[in-house]
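Q: Could you predict the 3D structure of AlpA family transcriptional regulator?
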Amino acid sequence: MLYAAQTPERLIRLPEVMARTGLGRTFIYRLVAKGLFPKPIKLGARASAWLENEIDGWIIARAAERNSA
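A: Sure. Here are the predicted structure tokens for AlpA family transcriptional regulator:
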């Protein structure tokens, strides 16, 4: 079994994703459907979460777009 040298990935649930991005639930899922936002990971039949580093990366990319415009 291989282990990453970095800290383990943290999964964050929708309320935290909403708080970090300032986006609402419906808008997040619309962006996911369009391929413009990271896809969640299914944890079970009715539970999903996002990788924290993917959400952080998405936020950083939005800031970079702002700075380059």
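Q: Anything worth pointing out?
A: The chain has three helices and three strands.
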